[in-house]
Amino acid sequence: MEARRRQSVQQTAPTNISIATKIFARILLNRLSTHITPEVVPETQCGFRGNRSTVDVIFCLRQLQEKCTDQDRPLYMVCVDFSKVFYTVGCPGLWQLLWKYGCPEKFTTMIEVLHTGMMANVRVGEEVSESFMLKMVSSKVVYWPPHSSPSS
Q1: Domain limits, the chain
Q2: Are strands 140-144 and 123-124 parallel, antiparallel or unpaired?
Q3: CA distance 133 to 131
Q4: Do residues 61 and 53 make contact, with C-beta atoms less than 8 angstroms apart?
Q5: Tens digit of pLDDT for each residue in 27-65?
Q6: Can you state the angle between helices 105-115 and 91-100, rounded to 10 degrees?
Q7: What's the pTM value of the predicted model, to 2 decimals?
Q8: Reverse transcriptase domain spans which residues (predicted)?
Q9: Which of 7, 60, 95, 148 lies 20 to 30 Å from 29 when distance is taken between CA atoms?
Q10: Rounded CA gap, 148 and 126, in Å?
């Protein structure tokens, strides 16, 4: 029983690091939103704002669609998947945007630390691999094996 518990703890150890990073990122986001949100996010935006959900917007769109159908009027809508756009912003551009919108330097530095210079290794049972660098490429994490060098 004790051996199984130890093995379980060893297998979940890297996950704990990830959870700590997620908690840190959430705290940072909450503090940063008081500095950035009022200036950057328009009053009409529902996603990423407190007490406003995209579900509310979908409900309004359905109501509007129903009204236009009842009154036999045309309705033109455009739907854009902005999640694809987030991966097109490079990190240096992100740091400049944060600075431009009044983000305090200490927050920008903390966000930059989350995105650059991260090292990791893999543990399988008792064996631990060599450390390798994680690098952000347009906001996606990729890894560089220990014997290759990342292109900047």
Answers
A1: 1-40+89-152, 44-79
A2: unpaired
A3: 7
A4: no
A5: 888 887 777 766 677 777 776 666 777 788 889 889 999
A6: 170
A7: 0.46
A8: 18-113
A9: 60
A10: 25
